[in-house]
Every structure is written in structure tokens, then in C-alpha cells.
Design goal:
Elements (H helix, E strand, L loop, with lengths): L1 H31 L3 E8 L10 E6 L2 E7 L5 E4 L5 E8 L5 E9 L4 E3 L2 E3 L8 E5 L16 E2 H6 L5 H5 L5 E2 L7 E2 L9 E3 L2 E3 L12 E2 L1
Parallel strand pairs: 1-7, 1-8, 6-9
Antiparallel strand pairs: 1-4, 2-3, 2-5, 5-6, 10-15, 11-12, 13-14
């Protein structure tokens, strides 16, 4: 009898741990699905919304998704991967505009408003660079984001050293990072929303965005 009770408790603990693991996986999937890109397309001359124009997002010159603006000129891309995109907006009677290097931060509703200018040259495409907003109105947390472009331009290749470029984070000799003076063993690492036990599990060249 004691053996049977012990066996049952072990099974219950395993089932409990399995349930917790499933909940964590579902939570991580939900967090990764919160990344979105939205905005409004308007006429540069009068500020009126441009209805049913084509909006497309590209990554490394590869078309990822397309959408249409609604009757208010609003468009939205939900459940996208964090990273850097090019956004192209086109409509008959307007000059096509392409906004380069738009940063979509993980777990945020990123916003990009576009103004189209009337034009008759069908082959012309206006290319502009994306400017990161100085103030994020919906940001209630502190921290920083390092994009793949910034990683390529930095001389260091260590993930912990890259993280230490953000205010409040320190790393000595490329070892584990300490956040706001806490111990290094209090730092947790997540890859695509899934908790891992080391920051060295993914090559630096494969990082698209680090928060």
C-alpha cells in the first residue's frame, strides 16, 4: 500500500509538472503572438484617409504579408514576428511609397503612419527611412532593444556583452549579465518566449532582435 501511494504521488507530480509546462508554452505562444504593426494611410495634401490602398511588408526583400486599408485608412498586421521590415504602400493616382527598416518590437503594437502624395508617374517609388519615435506612448517598462543591424555593426560578438550595452545591465569579462545590481543567477533568459538556462544556446548571427 505505501508503495502504491508513493507511485501515485509521483505520477501526480509528473502530471502537475507537465500541466505547468503546457501552460508556460501556451503563455509564450500568446506573448509571441502579440507583436503587431498598424497605422493609417492619408493624403499628404489634405490629410484625408486613403481608402482600400495596398499595404505590404517585406523582410530581406521577400514579401511577407499584404493587406488593405479600411474606410478610415487604417491597416493592421497582427501576429507577425519581431524584426525589421520594409513597408510599401501603393494606390492608383498616388506615388508608391516604401518605408525602409521599420522596427517591430516584440510584444508591442508598433505603429507606422504613411502619407501618400498624388503623382502620375507610375514607375516612381519614393523610398524613405524609418525614424524610431523618441517617445513610445504605450511603453510602461524600462529596458532596451538591440536589433540585428546594430549587432552586425558592433565590434563584439558576445551576447552578454551586447546586452550590457543597455543602461542598467552589466557584464564582467563577457560572463552572465547582472540587471540593476542584482546577482547574475537572478537573470533569466528567453528565446522566442521560451525560457532557457543559458544565453549561449543561440549563435549571435541568428539573433534578429534582443530585448
Amino acid at each position: 500500500m505505501p508503495f502504491d501511494v508513493f507511485k501515485k504521488s509521483v505520477i501526480e507530480r509528473k502530471l502537475y509538472r507537465l500541466g505547468i509546462l503546457v501552460l508556460l508554452c501556451l503563455a509564450s505562444l500568446q506573448l509571441s503572438a502579440q507583436t503587431a504593426l498598424e497605422g493609417k494611410v492619408t493624403d499628404a495634401d489634405n490629410g484625408e484617409p486613403v481608402l482600400f490602398c495596398n499595404v505590404a511588408i517585406y523582410k530581406n526583400d521577400v514579401l511577407i504579408r499584404g493587406a488593405e486599408s479600411d474606410i478610415d485608412g487604417n491597416y493592421s498586421f497582427s501576429n507577425i514576428d519581431p524584426g525589421t521590415y520594409d513597408v510599401e504602400v501603393s494606390y492608383v493616382g498616388f506615388t508608391t511609397q516604401r518605408v525602409q527598416s521599420v522596427v517591430a518590437l516584440a510584444g508591442k503594437v508598433n505603429r507606422l503612419d504613411v502619407q501618400l502624395s498624388a503623382g502620375l508617374v507610375l514607375d516612381e517609388v519614393v523610398v524613405v527611412d524609418y525614424k524610431i519615435p523618441l517617445i513610445e506612448q504605450d511603453n510602461t517598462t524600462s529596458g532596451g532593444v538591440v536589433t540585428s543591424e546594430q549587432i552586425r555593426n558592433l565590434p563584439t560578438k558576445s551576447i552578454t556583452t551586447l546586452a550590457a550595452t543597455t543602461a542598467g545591465i552589466s557584464s564582467i569579462g563577457g560572463e552572465a549579465v547582472a540587471i540593476r545590481g542584482s546577482r547574475t543567477n537572478a537573470t533569466e533568459y528567453f528565446v522566442d518566449g521560451v525560457r532557457v538556462f543559458s544565453s549561449s544556446l543561440i549563435p549571435q548571427s541568428e539573433i534578429d532582435q534582443m530585448q
